[in-house]
Design goal:
2% strand, mainly alpha, two-stranded antiparallel ribbon
Length: 439
């Protein structure tokens, strides 16, 4: 099997799963849930926000444990497959939802989003296997570019079904769109399971590890998860040995919080505050995906040239401009241009962040540390953002005020990123370093 085939299979998974993100999290399902399933009742906003927050919180809790078990057992692909099946199946079942099924739809969405977000933990951890130090930024950027290309593709596929809008009268077509996103995700995710291979379980020896392919693998069960709890406690201590990694994770928590909030509420903001129609939203998100593809590729090359830290800082300044422009936008045209700028910064900041995380992470803890990156820090931040956005919107009576509050998160993230020292090497704090016993 050639390395190019492995890389392409990995990239294609990003192409596959972004169909879920754009249809179920960003655009179609949020409006369908509020306007059709909940009958435009104001409580629909609260239930939607709670569903997103609960799913993210659950992923944040289980990701480090499963990441530790995946590193120990060498079963990373099995975990990725299980989460993908859960997401695809729950999404397919959501195509049966309709008026009066709010609770069931919310529970199914929680499962679907857990499968989607949880799978990303194991997917991202493969980056260290398929890329080297010289091209990590480019491959990470290509991954996000493929993801946004997938989003653009699914939007083109479902556009004819949304001509009548996301309303009760067009409910059958909207259900078809949800089912299509599930099928799209399932089909294009298959190559990663066919062509990627796990390296085997890791044998830990202090701060070094080597893949071990020989010997029996312990079965999954209560003993395995108890062992994972022990390894997670050790991981928290291990992360403290890498001070720059710790600072980056904290910075990522804040600025990713703001980015995920923008993604979750973009369609609701455009529809409710600026009066976008469904057709205009389709065109808007297609343009956003196009600029996101460009941003991911261009900034991927820039990341390899100037380093991921500088690239992240540049993208955070772009996000400042995006939020300020969106708050003061009074026309749909200006918001279109703002959205295109947001797309460029969205792809580039996420790709550069994944690259920096990869370079700061020692191989022996790769899936476990990515469990904290994608899970604890990535998903837990998505719990706080939507809640803050909702509270500010409710008390201020303005979604623009809620959007402006995200500047605080970007500001804190920027200040913390400036404290990260990165010279291409993983720095270990000897003061906190203790011997890690062999598992």
């Amino acid at each position: 099997m050639t390395q190019k085939l492995k890389v392409f299979s990995w990239l294609l998974f990003d192409f596959a799963n972004t169909s879920f993100s754009v249809v179920m999290v960003t655009f179609v399902f949020p409006l369908y849930f509020r306007n059709v399933i909940c009958g435009s009742d104001p409580s629909g906003d609260a239930m939607w926000g709670a569903s997103v927050s609960i799913s993210m919180l659950l992923v944040a809790l289980v990701s480090p444990l499963l990441g530790a078990e995946a590193d120990y057992s060498g079963r990373r692909k099995r975990f990725l497959f299980a989460f993908t099946v859960v997401s695809v199946t729950a999404t397919a079942l959501l195509s049966l939802s309709g008026p009066g099924t709010a609770l069931a739809a919310a529970l199914l969405f929680i499962l679907a989003n857990m499968g989607f977000e949880g799978g990303i933990v194991f997917y991202d951890a493969y980056l260290k296997d398929i890329a080297d130090e010289g091209n990590t930024g480019r491959i990470s950027g290509y991954g996000f570019a493929m993801g946004y290309l997938g989003a653009l593709a699914i939007l083109l596929v479902v556009k004819p079904f949304l001509a009548g809008g996301i309303v009760l009268a067009n409910m059958h077509n909207v259900r078809t769109v949800i089912l299509l996103s599930s099928v799209f995700f399932g089909i294009f995710s298959l190559p990663v399971f066919l062509f990627l291979r796990d390296r085997g379980r890791n044998k830990y020896d202090g701060l070094k590890a080597e893949p071990v392919s020989a010997g029996p693998r312990r079965s999954l069960g209560m003993q395995a998860f108890l062992r994972s709890f022990s390894e997670v406690r050790r991981t928290i201590g291990a992360i403290r040995r890498y001070p720059d990694l710790s600072r980056f994770l904290l910075a990522y928590f804040f600025y990713n919080d703001a980015i995920l909030t923008v993604i979750s509420f973009s369609s609701i903001y455009a529809h409710n505050t600026l009066g976008y129609t469904t057709g205009e939203l389709v065109i808007f998100f297609m343009l956003v995906q196009t600029t996101a593809i460009t941003g991911s590729i261009v900034f991927g090359f820039l990341t390899d040239r100037i380093g991921p830290k500088k690239t992240i800082i540049i993208t955070l300044f772009i996000w400042f401009a995006v939020i300020i422009a969106a708050v003061f936008s009074s026309s749909k045209e200006l918001f279109f241009y703002t959205g295109m700028l947001a797309g460029m910064s969205m792809g580039s900041s996420q790709a550069a962040s994944r690259t920096l995380m990869t370079r700061l992470t020692p191989y022996e803890h790769v899936t476990e540390f990515f469990g904290f990156y994608d899970g604890t820090f990535g998903k837990a931040s998505a719990v706080a953002g939507p809640l803050v956005f909702g509270l500010v919107s409710a008390y201020a009576g303005s979604q623009k005020a809620a959007l402006a509050s995200l500047l605080v998160f970007f500001g804190i993230g920027l200040l913390l990123m400036l404290r990260v020292k990165f010279d291409g090497k993983v720095r270990v704090s000897t003061e906190l370093c203790t011997e890690v016993p062999e598992s």
